[in-house]
Amino acid sequence: MQKQSASSRTDLINRGPAMLVMGILNVTPDSFADGGKHFIFEQAVQHGLQMIEDGVDIIDIGGESTRPGADRVSEEEEQRRVIPVIRELIGKGAEISIDTMRASTARIAVESGATIVNDVSGGAADARMFSTIAELGCKYTLMHWRGHSKDMNERAKYDNVVQEVISELTFQLDKAIAAGIKRENIILDPGLGFAKDTEHNWEILENLDEFIALGYPVLIGHSRKRFIGGERPDDREEGTLAISQSLIGSGIWAVRVHNVKPHAEMVKR
Question: What GO cellular-component annotations does this UniProt entry give (predicted)?
Answer without folding.
Answer: cytosol
